[in-house]
Amino acid sequence: MIEHQVRTYRSAEDFPYEEHLAYKIARVAADPVEVPADTEEMIINRIIDNASVSAASVLRRPVTVARRQAEAHPVTKGGAAVFGIPGRFSAEWAALANGTAVRELDFHDTFLAAEYSHPGDNIPAILAAAQHKGSNGHDLIRGIATGYEIQVDLVRGICLHEHKIDHVAHLGPSVAAGIGTLLKLDVDTIYQAIGQALHTTTATRQSRKGQISSWKAFAPAFAGKMGIEAVDRAMRGEGAPAPIWEGEDGVIAWLLSGPDHTYTVPLPAEGEEKRAILDTFTKEHSAEYQSQAPIDLARRMREEIKDFNDIESIVLHTSHHTHYVIGTGSNDPQKFDPDASRETLDHSIMYIFAVALEDGEWHHERSYSPERAHRPETIELWHKISTVEDPEWTRRYHSTDPKEKAFGARAVITMKDGSVIEDEIAVADAHPYGARPFAREQYIKKFRTLAEGVVSEKEQDRFLEACENLANLNDLNELNITLEEDVLAKAPETPEGLL
Q: Could you tell me which residue ranges the MmgE/PrpD N-terminal domain spans (predicted)?
């Protein structure tokens, strides 16, 4: 890996475009290096993982709305598939629909470093572009490997959330780079597409603050859609604002740490394999990633508690991220509101820990139901939980050593009689260094579980066979899943839109 120093340059300074971060990323995307076997295997796992959560979310209202938006844009030439339905649709709208289905339940893969991310958000847009252009499985694998690589590298080097910029600002460029690899575009075209994609996908973090709405699911899908449109314009010869990161009025100078700050962004050297996907991890539970380990901790600790009414308080000692984003450090009263949206509850570690402690499980629907959130005993326990930042957990969160890097917490449960129950967990059970790491078997099990009652067994089998033969797949439409009409009929009615 080469560590690139990225800072602001005045317009009058000599700064050749070959030195721009967007150009260096484009060089990585255009590198014809092949994908190693372990990266390819994980890409297949994540395609299966995305299909799992799409099956679980396909009948939810935001996903239904996005699907109906895509249905309004059918095509007779090219086009891409939309999860759940037959037909061909405009690639960018298919990417929006499929990306919303993937993100709706907050249940797919994650990478956490200086910034947060869900790198699996790259897949719907890159796959839609591949289907539209008639690409094969080999090219799709290369494109997805690039998408993951660029997003992970940006997340390692540039923190967005401290400036209240949403993390999808790293997704637009990674999608554009991934599509560039997929289509074997030249460096200059990819460079322009990356700049346009960043420019059009930079937004504030209010989408993940306060009363969180369904836009949380649409935001990364929209970034994928913008990535496709950016590539399309660049291929037609249109340019981007430049230098997009380093310009005097660019992203670093005005949206991030300012003109005096230098970021360090690692990128693969020429000929170096793209392996970043191997540093990412998926979710066993449908909740924000920082909740994964605490859910497993709660399931373990509940065995030591005879009566939950005897609990005086619960304090979760954890990282800066957990405390300030999903903990009491956020100062969001909505995180204690039983009438809050599902999107808000899955960003409340207090709610999540209370329910996991009481139930000994986590379910993507039951655990968020209004009936579950309104249980009086749950509300009472929920309000006894608080978080505090522990510098050691924050240090481990930012560690560059994957074996030390941790996303866990220490729970201190104080009983009314003064006794204390204490335990801690560093990583979730499903994490690569956890008690039960996910491998192909677990990804397939997750898919089978979430697809049950939604996707026919025959269709499940067909899809999994196509995934496992991805490198030799010539028709990428086989990666789409269609549902029976009686299943789709259960989707909610939604008002007519403009388009």
A: 20-262
Cα 2 to chain centroid, rounded: 25
- Residue-level pLDDT at 453: 95
**Separation CA 410–CA 210 (nearest Å):** 26
Please tell me the total number of residues recorded for the chain in this structure.
499
| Co-location of 295 and 256 in the same domain | no
Per DSSP (E only), the strands in 292-429 are: 311-318, 385-389, 409-415, 420-425
pLDDT at residue 425 greater than cutoff 90:
yes
Judgement on whether residues 191 and 211 belong to the same structural domain of the protein: yes
Q: What integer pLDDT is reported at residue 372 of this predicted model?
A: 97
3-state helix, strand, coil in the chain (%, to 5): 55, 10, 35
Q: Let me know whether 329 and 219 are in one domain.
A: no
Of 324, 354, 319, the closest CA to residue 425 belongs to: 319
Question: Which among 345, 322, 325 has a CA at the least distance from the CA of 335?
Answer: 345
Q: How many domains does the chain have?
A: 2
Q: What's the CATH code of the domain at 410?
A: 3.30.1330.120
**Residue 166: closest CA among 123, 202, 218:** 202
Kindly state whether residues 311 and 183 are assigned to the same domain: no
Which token pair is 403? 């074996």
Contact 426, 293 (CB under 8 A): yes
Query: Of all helices (H) and strands (E), which one includes residue 17?
Result: none
Same domain, residue pair 112 and 206? yes
CA distances, 167 to each of 116, 204, 271, 335, 405 (Å)? 6, 9, 28, 21, 20
Residue range of the domain that includes 241: 2-279
Question: 311-318 and 409-415 as β-strands: parallel, antiparallel, unpaired?
Answer: antiparallel
CA-CA distance, 176 to 251, in Å (whole number)?
17
Integer Cα distance of 410 and 316 in angstroms? 6
Given 245, 279, 313, which residue is the final one in a domain?
A: 279
Q: State the pLDDT at residue 110.
A: 92
DSSP-H helix ranges across 31-90: 37-57, 61-71
273 and 383 belong to one structural domain: no
Q: Are residues 176 and 271 in the same domain?
A: yes
Q: Tens digits of per-residue pLDDT, 461-491?
A: 999 999 999 999 999 999 999 999 999 999 9
Question: What's the gap between Cα 113 and its chain centre?
Answer: 13
3-state secondary structure of 232: helix
Tell me whether residue 475 is exposed, middle or buried, using C-beta atoms within 10 angstroms of its C-beta: 0 to 12, 13 to 18, 19 or more: exposed
Same domain, residue pair 273 and 295: no
**Three-class secondary structure of residue 7 per DSSP:** strand
pLDDT at residue 402, as a whole number: 83
Phi, psi of 493 (to 5 degrees): -70, 140
| Residue 244 in domain | yes
Boundary of a domain, candidates 373, 400, 425? 425
